[in-house]
Specification:
- This protein has about 400 residues and is an alpha/beta fold.
- It has a five-stranded mixed beta sheet with strand order 1-5-4-3-2, sandwiched between helices. Strands 7-8-6-9-10 form a five-stranded mixed beta sheet.
- α4 links the parallel β4 and β5.
- The longest helix is centred in the middle third of the chain and has 30 residues.
- The radius of gyration is 28 Å and the shape is globular.
Length: about 400
């Protein structure tokens, strides 16, 4: 979640104008430096070291270049050599930026931005970038810690150590909740959205010191720990957490997809708890939002840990591939019909409604599927194979 020149430009939209280096807007910004007079030839030659660094966004009025705009070109070349993120010119002296400077910046993908008025203050920019950088580093740190915890899931002691690194106050009794939104925002917008959620959460019981609330991958992760949040493992306690999160933090956002993991009673199970919540949230997103409990995923709970299994891939492919080939050659919709039939609980009425077809059409297509695959919907064990192949396919699609 690096803070970039693009994020600065978006933050000060209307106050900044990009004049060169558009292809370098993804450069990370670690801090802001002020260029005053340091690059004057007579001053620069007296110092062995100048305070400009890699990933530093430099701002200047170029007062020292008022009588010699060529010095702007030299400054850009120097900053590029130092790996600077970009240059913001507060052009209060209405300097003409040399064409050579623009060409060089474009050639090196070095963003050069001009202020378009007096609203932008350097002090404010320094504070804003510093705050964003600290937040990004904090969030990136938690992201890395969670990733490491998931990698260490087979080592109980290491998972406990990783969990303590994330939050030393985590209790043994815990449950994870994960939230996905239908549209993935950019860094700046996503960070701002999370900050809004974090402020809402602060006024609820979910803000307990024994909990974790952080951005993770494309969503937001909440881990609640302690007896009052987890309960005896029944649905009621989990529903309480999910309902509170949706009402007080997500503001009942209908499209938000909430995945609710099972209750766990040992800290070394935190990796499992997070995986459950993420999986359930992806199913919720596939269904258009709302809350999905991992406990209600049925056979998918068994399939999820083995999605990378070659045997599972081979089974699904060999079962469904004849239908793909037939559809491609005949222009038919047999695989679509099988998917709908499985997804609709093998109900002819619901499948017909989903496809916009007559029930007899659905039956004829299923008979054709039986002729091609050798698996009939009329035989329970054969239909089970078709249904399982579809579940594997759907599971792979949802989990990416």
């Amino acid at each position: 979640m690096a803070y970039t020149v693009s994020d600065v430009l978006a933050t000060y939209e209307g106050s900044l104008r990009l004049v060169a280096g558009e292809d370098g807007l993804a450069r990370p910004v670690r801090e802001v430096g002020i260029l005053d007079y340091e690059l004057l030839p007579e001053v620069k030659s007296r110092f062995q070291r100048v305070n400009f660094y890699e990933n530093q966004l430099v701002v200047s009025t170029f007062l020292y270049a008022k009588d010699n705009p060529f010095l702007i070109t030299e400054a850009i070349k120097y900053l590029v050599s130092k790996g600077s993120s970009g240059l913001i010119i507060k052009n209060v002296f209405h300097l003409q930026i040399p064409e050579g400077a623009i060409r060089y910046a474009n050639a090196r993908n070095f963003p050069v931005l001009l202020t378009t008025g007096d609203r932008m203050l350097f002090d404010e920019l320094i504070i804003r970038v510093d705050r964003a950088q600290r937040q990004a580093e904090s969030y990136e740190g938690i992201q890395r810690q969670i990733d490491q915890l998931l990698l260490d899931r087979e080592d109980r002691d290491q998972v406990i150590s990783d969990a303590r690194a994330i939050n030393p106050s985590l209790k043994n009794e815990l449950r994870a909740v994960y939230v996905l939104f239908p549209q993935t925002a950019g860094h700046d917008e996503g960070l701002a959205h999370f900050e809004v959620l974090e402020r809402r959460l602060a006024s609820t019981s979910l803000a307990a010191y024994t909990n974790v609330f952080a951005p993770y991958d494309d969503g937001v992760l909440l881990v609640v720990s302690g007896e009052h949040m987890v309960g005896d493992g029944g649905k009621a306690a989990g529903d309480t957490v999910a309902n509170l999160l949706r009402a007080e933090v997500l503001d009942n956002e209908v499209s938000a997809a909430v995945g609710l993991g099972d209750a766990h009673f040992e800290l070394h199970e935190l990796a499992d708890a997070i995986t459950e919540a993420v999986s359930a949230a992806r199913f919720a997103l596939h269904r258009g939002g709302g809350v999905v409990r991992f406990a209600d995923l049925g056979v998918y709970r068994l399939l999820l840990p083995y999605l990378q299994s070659p045997a599972l891939h081979t089974f699904a492919r060999q079962t469904l591939e004849p239908l793909r080939v037939y559809d491609a050659e005949a222009g038919s919709h047999l695989l679509e019909t099988l998917r709908a039939f499985c997804d609709c609980g093998q109900s002819f009425t619901r499948t017909a409604e989903a496809l916009g077809q007559h029930e007899n059409t659905v039956r004829r297509r299923l008979e054709r599927i039986a002729a091609i695959t050798g698996l009939s919907y009329r035989e329970a064990d054969q239909m089970e194979q078709l249904s399982l192949a579809r579940k594997v396919e759907l599971c792979q699609e949802i989990m990416g």
